[in-house]
Amino acid sequence: MGKLTVEEIKKMAGLAIEALEDKKAEDIRVIDISEVSVLADYFLIASGKNRNQLQALADEVEEKLGRAGYPMKQSEGYDSANWILLDFGDIIIHLFDQENRLFYDLERIWRDGKQIDPKSLLSE
Fold first, then answer.
1. At what angle do helices 51-67 and 6-22 cross, to 10 degrees?
2. Helices H, strands E: what count in the chain?
3. Cβ-based burial of 72 (10 A; exposed 0-12, middle 13-18, buried ≥19)
4. Confidence of residue 124 (pLDDT cuts 50, 70, 90)
5. Would the pLDDT of 77 be above 50?
6. CA atoms of 13 and 35, how far apart (whole Å)
7. How many CB atoms lie within 10 A of CB 117?
8. Are the C-beta atoms of residues 51 and 96 closer than 8 Å to each other?
9. What gap in Å lies between CA 43 and CA 58, rounded to an integer?
10. Pairing of strands 91-97, 42-48
């Protein structure tokens, strides 16, 4: 799959948000970093209550996006599950437990990015 269009990237982000909501992720945030970084277009950040939920969130996102034709490039932190990073190229998903979400505070670090309402990326 070549470079995705903006609409395809938004669709992929929307599917990831649906997967996170299906598994009861907390405090889902979307940051458009396309103007401030070459890493990706979007960061999706969400929290889970415990290791099992965080792993279930990661599994659901990987499965849902994979079925839609968006394979994961790599992941980090699945086993320890206090910060799981899922790299889908154009979007990077960060899943945190509460303590690490507060500690790493990606929303502050990436404040130059544009906060997007997650609901705006969901399909009708």
1. 140
2. 4, 6
3. middle
4. low
5. yes
6. 17
7. 9
8. no
9. 14
10. parallel
- Give the C-alpha separation, 67 to 90, whole Å: 17
Q: Assess if CATH 3.90.480.10 describes domain 6-107.
A: no
Task: Note whether 82 and 93 are within 8 A (CB).
Answer: no
Scan for tokens 């990831």, then name that residue: 16
Question: Locate tokens 């960060």: which residue?
Answer: 94
Tokens 């889908």 appear where? 88
DSSP string, 55-111: HHHHHHHHHHHHHTT----EEE-TTT-SEEEEE-SSEEEEEEEHHHHHHH-HHHHTT
Which residues make Cβ contacts (< 8 Å) with residue 28, sequence separation at least 6? 17, 20, 21, 44, 45, 46, 118
The residue assigned the tokens 């699945």 is 78
pLDDT band at 1 (very low <50, low <70, confident <90, very high): very low
